[in-house]
Amino acid sequence: MIDFNFKVLEEDGESRARLGTIKTKRGSIQTPYFVPVATLATVKALDACDLLALGVQCTLANTYHLHLKPGDEVIKRLGGLHGFMGFDGPIFTDSGGFQAFSLGFGREHNINKIGGVFPDGRNAEEKRENLTKIQDNGIYFKSIYDGAWHFLDAKKSMQIQANLGADIIMAFDECTSPLSDYNYTKMAMKRTHEWASQSLDHHDRTQAIYGIIQGGWFEDLRHESTEFIASLPFDGMAIGGSLGNGKKDMHQVLDWIIPKLDDRTRHLLGIGDIDDIFECVQRGIDTFDCVSPTRIARRGNLYLSPESGGTLDNKFRLSIKSTRYKEDPNPIDPACYCSTCSRYSRAYLRHLYISKELTYFRLASIHNIYFMLRLMEKIRYGIKSGAFFELKEKWLGKI
Amino acid sequence: MIDFNFKVLEEDGESRARLGTIKTKRGSIQTPYFVPVATLATVKALDACDLLALGVQCTLANTYHLHLKPGDEVIKRLGGLHGFMGFDGPIFTDSGGFQAFSLGFGREHNINKIGGVFPDGRNAEEKRENLTKIQDNGIYFKSIYDGAWHFLDAKKSMQIQANLGADIIMAFDECTSPLSDYNYTKMAMKRTHEWASQSLDHHDRTQAIYGIIQGGWFEDLRHESTEFIASLPFDGMAIGGSLGNGKKDMHQVLDWIIPKLDDRTRHLLGIGDIDDIFECVQRGIDTFDCVSPTRIARRGNLYLSPESGGTLDNKFRLSIKSTRYKEDPNPIDPACYCSTCSRYSRAYLRHLYISKELTYFRLASIHNIYFMLRLMEKIRYGIKSGAFFELKEKWLGKI
User: What contacts A292, CB < 8 A, 6 or more positions away?
Assistant: First the structure.
């Protein structure tokens, strides 16, 4: 039987924020926690030793990508994800449904989960091309790698995730967009519910499995989806799909869902801006995953704490390419103790970035991941010591 | 006064191979040694902590590149190369003359030092453009970064290298090509001799300085250049310029030069294939520098020892992109103990390479650098134990 367990250790008196521990056979995850994403079995620019050195508790890999490259059966034969990527801690995999959305519908409409455009502009040709066909039985999608058509349904998603051998897997779902209307979102939610039951049927109980709550930004659908998914024997609850057209909508969606949930652990898929972390922890989220720390690092955006000038306005980031850092002998964030900040100056990092040196990407990613992990540590300490709101105010200002 | 000293500790009875120690104020270099190249103040894909972990004794950075980007005066203000790149060991810089050749004449003619074409094909437009004008007073060259014209002479090269603050610097020289005829090569050699004296005049004796022997692949010129450069009070001898039209010519050139040298240390510029290392150590070279281990790593070529199937024919390399490694659970080289081979399979590295994951470049570079350093260690042990030729035969086969 599965070795998985979530315990709430402490609750914040003034909000739904809570301190907890997810126990798996490969180690524990102290929550609230930000899970770094290892899309193709590597957190981009880092290796498993870097993750160990950073104290990363767990990581999340992508079913869609790994199914296509190098193939989940190849990974299975090489010892599963843990053996393949050399990481011994707990690993999550997603269901593949989100990529079918983001690389299909989302890409066509150039839109992301909360109504924004994708940060990297897609070209018109890509947008015109229909990359996904969603039917009641599953999703047909065109591989972004070789253009071949593939099919994914609950059974297949479970098989792939079993082959990958993650500790925590996700039920198969359909992710909708903020552009989807009520009727489409409802239809997709019904499919997601059907697929949730099928996922449990095709799941062998050696991995923990989270159900995914859908319903877009429609109150009655979110209520219905929360009740249905929570009624099934999932080990944890994930919140997916469109979260509306901005951060306020996202908070609203969480306020509809969370009060209806029991004590099982709650994962918010694909969210990771610093203000979102505070707002969603406050609303009762235990874990997050997002590619943003490493993605923004690759684009020259490095996290900055409030002590070093980080604010909501600058999104707690500096842009290392700025000429103002050309001769700056200070570390990225003088209040940071990561291995990059301990050794290298802004001037050196700027030089590496401007010169497109490969070394830059790793040093920058180490800083941004370390920064997020330390933020989560501070949040956990804040909850434990009854100072969560004090911490939030220090970072986000008076609300 | 300068803290620099070279001692021969042991000589091979059957050849000119020798074991030695270069002492600098930042540490010692056991020779024969292969010096990894940090073109732009970083060994590509690695950081200074990686170099420490690899046990890298010293590194070589490029005057030409760093003068242009970020600028040697910027680096000076940031603590020199050691402070800038966070590396405390001995650092060499070259004179800038080779880049003026390779990015000027060499690029125009698509030719490298030993008559081969540059591994990365230059486009016709680049070749047509005249990027360098060499005169008796110095070299005018067009920056490869922004197309602006710059001027380099002995005085300027000494100033730049003083700003960079390397422990071991090179006299300013003109590097000729295998395509240069006798008369041109002679003229360039005369200039190099003039510049060698000027380099000493403009050098403040806080850094060790090597003279560079030129003369192409013409016996009388190499004799003349060796005698002249060796007559000057340089701390070490470097051998530069065209080494003929193939490996045999290179051995011939060394056989002309080395017997005329005294006990000062000898550096061979820009050479680093495994068979070359053996042949040149045998002929009395103490140190080498070359970008090849990291460059070939980035292109998917990973070193393989004889125990694991490396031969002269396969250049002691495997090509990780080959489908044969798709499910190969073995490390790159089962006889290697580097951190990459200790943790990751060929299958994982192939997956990272095929997926263009940034993580690949570092793991591959670590392996290739480690491999070269261990080879040098074996060569040193071979000389010490009187087994150099045995080792050479094991690697290169019966001669």
Answer: A272, A273
At A52, is the secondary structure helix, strand, or coil?
A: helix
Distance separating alpha carbons of residues B124 and A317, to the nearest angstrom: 42
Query: CB-hemisphere CA count at 13 Å for A217?
Result: 19
CB spacing of A327 vs B74 below 8 angstroms: yes
A53 CB contacts (<8 Å, ≥6 apart)? A339
Question: What 3-state class would DSSP assign to B206?
Answer: coil
Query: What CA–CA distance (Å, rounded) separates B138 from B154?
Result: 7
Residue B289: active-site member: yes
State how far residue B327 is from chain A, nearest Cα, in angstroms: 6
CA of A141 to nearest chain B CA: how many angstroms apart? 20
Query: Per this entry, what is the length of chain B?
Result: 399
Task: Compute the distance between CA of residue A197 and CA of residue A191 in angstroms, rounded to an integer.
Answer: 10
What Rg do the C-alpha atoms of chain B give, in angstroms?
Answer: 20
Question: Could you tell me if residue B204 is left (phi over 0), alpha (psi between -120 and 50 degrees) or otherwise beta?
Answer: alpha
- Chain B residues near residue A358 by CB distance under 8 angstroms: 44-45, 358, 361-362
Which residues in chain A are closer than 8 Å to B362, comparing Cβ atoms? Answer: 45, 47, 358, 362
A47 catalytic? Reply is no
Max CA distance (Å), chain B: 60
Dihedral angle sign, alpha carbons of residues A225, A227, A232, A235? positive
pTM value? 0.94
Measured CA to CA in angstroms, residue A264 lies from A236, A261, B34 at distances of: 5, 8, 57
Omega before A293 within 30 of 0, i.e. cis: no
pLDDT tens, chain A, 399 aa long? 789 999 999 999 899 999 999 999 999 999 999 999 999 999 999 999 999 999 999 999 999 999 999 999 999 999 999 999 999 999 999 998 877 766 765 555 555 555 444 444 444 334 435 678 889 999 988 888 888 888 999 999 999 999 999 999 999 999 888 888 999 999 999 999 999 999 999 998 899 999 999 999 999 999 999 999 999 999 999 999 888 888 889 999 999 999 999 999 999 999 999 999 999 999 999 999 999 999 999 999 999 999 999 999 999 999 999 999 999 999 999 999 999 999 999 999 999 999 999 999 999 999 999 999 999 999 999 999 999 999 999 999 986
Length of chain A measured in residues: 399
Give every CB contact of residue A159 below 8 A, 6+ residues apart in sequence. A72, A202
- Partners of A74 on chain B (C-beta within 8 Å) are 326-327, 347
Domains and CATH numbers, chain A: 4-290 (3.20.20.105), 298-392 (no CATH)
Residue B122 pLDDT: 43
How are beta strands A317-319 and A301-303 bridged, if at all?
antiparallel
